Amino acid sequence: MKKEKQSIAYPVIFLSVLTLVYIFVLAGLDFMTKDVVAQNQALELEKKILYVFNLQDDYTTDDEARALFSERVTTVSETVDGEAKTYALLDGDKEIAYAVPFAGPGLWGSITGYLGVNSDFTTLTGIEFITQSETPGLGGRIAEEAYKAQYRGLDISAASDKLFVINRPAPGGNIDAITGATQTSKFVVNMVNDDLDTFLKEVRHGE
Amino acid sequence: MANKKLNVKAIFKNGLFADNPVIFQIIGICSALAVTNLMMNSLIMGLALVFVTGLSSFTVSLLKDRTPAHIRMLVQVLIISAYVIIVNIFLQAYMPAMSKALGPYVGLIITNCIIMGRAEAYAISNPPVASLLDGMAAGLGYTAVLLAIAFVRELLGFGTLFGIPVLPESATAWTLMIMPPGAFFVLSIYIWIARSKRIKQEAAQEKGGQR
Q1: Does A18 touch chain B (CB under 8 A)?
Q2: Predicted structure pTM score
Q3: What ipTM describes this predicted complex?
Q4: For residue B119, which of B159, B59, B68, B164 has the smallest C-alpha distance?
Q5: Segment A192-204, tens digit of pLDDT
Q6: End-to-end CA distance of chain A
Q7: Does A2 touch chain B (CB under 8 A)?
Q8: Number of H helices and number of E strands within chain A?
Q9: Which chain regions cross the lipid bilayer (chain B) (predicted)?
Q10: Which of A159, B30, B31, B85 would be a feasible disulfide site paired with A164, CB 3.0-4.6 Å?
Q11: Residue ranges in chain A assigned as alpha helix (H)
């Protein structure tokens, strides 16, 4: 036994066997929970879209959220951009608002999210971030209610030159930037303006 | 195992008090500082550590006679990471909100010195069941300290315990407590108290011995 342990082959075989055993166990567990995890992720996205449309108070349970999403929200197929889809809020058969995906660089990593805009493109309905890795407590506060609430019901009908949201105190400013996170605040406003502009151009050309 | 009686009480006393990993060995500090701004996070983190430490110690002990000594650390890390991945999968599937809240710290359990420390200090030279208990005891010691820190931080920082408001609305939230410095203050105060108590005890014992 002692001699075996000192050979070169024994440690290699030992480690390979052990690794194989664990790979099978972990792969099995991963396979078993794959559907649940995917469901959780889908639900999270659905809840975020509902938040963008200001419908976050219209459900209490996860099942109600799913039902509400499938009843009121539809994907706008013609503006599929990569993986991020544009969603529309339905009232009967009429589309009354859109959730427009936006993406761009943040301070530490890319930021993605959805911006809600009503169907005559005069008012924002809300904003929600899907991924962001900004500094917690500073730039990370873009994901907090106090910041996101500023986008709710924001009037953008007077916006010109693709400046829909502007950080205060610049002239025409309508969003309070986050203190100590000037860069993040700038990045967010820029990506929101750019991607909303692109979306509006596409829609208007389509008409 | 046959000639050595399993002393469950001593194992748990060591893990929880006498050899508490965080207070006396000062290991596992990183996550103890990171996740303790909410009691619920601390509890889940602690339970995850109990699970991982217990089972990795158990497995390391089971394999100790077959493991070549020079690759034992490799084997230990492999075993530990497998259990951490299991915890991570479980949280993602059944507690997605908690998985989000703990974020990278679940994965970082792999680097938690407590687990490797127990594997090296105890499991490698003790029978499996004793190692399992020893690992769980160390995990519980860690959990206890985490909860103690989180109690102060959540109470003063948010005015809540396990998310239930306990302080009146008029109480001003102490934001420092939910930021990293708060953890440093609370943990060092605990270590200070525990250590001065121990020094006193040891002094008393020495005196008693001399007489």
Answers
A1: yes
A2: 0.75
A3: 0.71
A4: B59
A5: 999 999 888 888 7
A6: 80
A7: no
A8: 5, 5
A9: 21-38, 44-63, 75-95, 101-119, 131-152, 172-193
A10: A159
A11: 2-6, 9-52, 62-72, 145-148, 182-206
